[in-house]
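Subject: sequence -> structure tokens, single chain

Hey, anyone have a minute? Need the predicted structure for the following. Not urgent.
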Amino acid sequence: MSKFVSRFMNDESGATAIEYGLIAALIAVALVTAMGFLGEGLENAFKGIQGTLEGETPPAAP
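Reply:
Had a minute. Here:
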């Protein structure tokens, strides 16, 4: 029984997989957050362009 416990405590192969999973989850959260901020910025930019285009058009120069 002590050999089993000793091997179990020294086995780190599962820890590496868990670490990679945590890193992937952290990257996913960062990407979702960045896309949220980028989406808001693009929305504001397009609303500004839309407001400019909907304004009165000045007369053409002769």
